[in-house]
Amino acid sequence: MNVLRGTHWSRLALLLALGMFALVLVACGDDSDGDGDGDGPTQALKIGYLADFSGPLAEFGPAIQTGIDLAVKHINDAGGVNGMPISVVVGDDKTDQTAAIEEARRLIEIEGVSAIVGPLASGVTIAVAESVARDAGVVVISPSATSPGVTTANDGGFLFRSTTSDAAQGVVLADLANEEGIESVGVLYLNDAYGQGLKDAFEAAFGSDKVTSSSFEDGQASYLAELQAAAAGGSDTLVAIGYPTQAQVFIREALENNLFSNFLFVDGTKSLDLVAAVGADALEGMLGTAPTGGPATDARQAWDASYSAEVGDIPNLPFIREAYDAVVAIALAAEYANSHDGAAIRDALPTIGAPGGEQFVPGPDGVKAALEAVANGDDIDFEGSATTLNWDENGDVTTGYIGIWRYAGGEIEEVREVDFDLSD
């Protein structure tokens, strides 16, 4: 009898313990995405920065991170997102699709990021969005993936960009060639989504009958055969579409073999490393194009002032402003959604930059005010430092500016900005 009584109470105690454990589970819920049971997130927002630190775009990765870090400082100085400071986890994609996919999985599955800023290269960005982020339900905002192919990626609505499509840069580049009195060109372009997309946009605007083009692969020891093919049309001007490590080789080869004496550059070949490798005299006065912020807007002036105060001289390399804008947009969307869930952030992103709400600009004061307004349930229109963040259904910004720049005295000199509107 005593044994039976002991067994009865042991079973009862076990059932009570299991019941209490179940109640704890119900109360806590599944917190894998950092959200609680409807009262808001219980874990801090974590953002991945996936960029190149050791491949052909390694010159850009650390420079663009200065924009990332500045955004994090402004957000955390304002009190963070949903009452908690945000953090950034960095991954090196080497501008390689396989490496990028592996790093994206690490950032999402191991580090638990809710969104990714990057990658830098268009082809790598598309691969990450289609192979990893879409199925994981994680937002990707590239600050620099300019290929028109990004627009049609099969990304489930999770891919955005805070820069402009090369559908715009190609036209501005063609207009620049015409302004310079250039009647025909050779085009040497990287055989990937970025190079192909920009070449096609330029050729359509400039005239295919005036273009002799040749593609190349990354990592070649020499590009002489491809340069000779691009020079077969007889032009002395080469449009150089690639990355700095590649341009360091093929620009030198073009000069040494007297194949071209004039060059038009683009965002991927806007590089101080190229100047160091080839020599300032060889590039003096050569022009190029790249996405840029608009002329002296309130948003750009606010960002410039805060960057100068916190980091130093305003950078000439592209896409630093765009990276800042991407981080702030993610933070505002997470605050708006009261959630760190990727789908909730995705759905909120078009709202925080849409026209019609109260306008806010970058900088510590602007970011603080924008976060407070969103927390209060107000409609806002956050103006990016590089472009408006008026995203369309494809995650593209449709208005902005392409800058004209030149190599001058061993430095990069900004010449002017050209506005565009791709919404038509």
Layout of SSEs?
Elements: H1 2-28, E1 46-51, H2 60-77, E2 87-92, H3 97-110, E3 115-117, H4 122-136, E4 139-142, E5 159-161, H5 166-179, E6 185-190, H6 193-206, E7 211-216, H7 224-230, E8 237-241, H8 244-256, E9 262-265, H9 272-278, H10 280-283, E10 287-292, H11 298-310, H12 320-337, H13 342-352, E11 358-360, H14 364-375, E12 380-382, E13 399-408, E14 411-421
Parallel strand pairs: 1-2, 1-3, 3-4, 4-5, 6-7, 6-8, 8-9, 9-10, 11-12
Antiparallel strand pairs: 10-13, 13-14
Helix pairs in contact: 2-12, 2-14, 3-4, 5-6, 8-9, 12-13, 12-14
In short:
Helices cover 44% and strands 18% of the residues. With 424 residues, it is of the alpha/beta class.
Task: Please describe the structure with a list of short key phrases separated by commas or semicolons.
424 residues; alpha/beta; Rossmann fold; 7-stranded mixed sheet; 5-stranded parallel sheet; 14 helices; 44% helix; disordered N terminus
Task: Describe the 3D structure.
This protein folds into two domains: 46-164 and 296-400, Rossmann fold (3-Layer(aba) Sandwich); 167-291 and 402-421, Rossmann fold (3-Layer(aba) Sandwich), CATH 3.40.50. α2 (60-77) packs parallel to α12, α3 runs parallel beside α4 (122-136) and α12 (320-337) crosses α13 (342-352). With 424 residues, it is of the alpha/beta class. β13 (399-408) and β14 (411-421) form a beta hairpin. The chain is built from 14 helices and 14 strands. The strands form three sheets. It has a seven-stranded mixed β-sheet with strand order 7-6-8-9-10-13-14, with helices on both faces. The chain has helices at 2-28, 60-77, 97-110, 122-136, 166-179, 193-206, 224-230, 244-256, 272-278, 280-283, 298-310, 320-337, 342-352, 364-375, and strands spanning 46-51, 87-92, 115-117, 139-142, 159-161, 185-190, 211-216, 237-241, 262-265, 287-292, 358-360, 380-382, 399-408, 411-421. The chain is 44% helix and 18% strand.
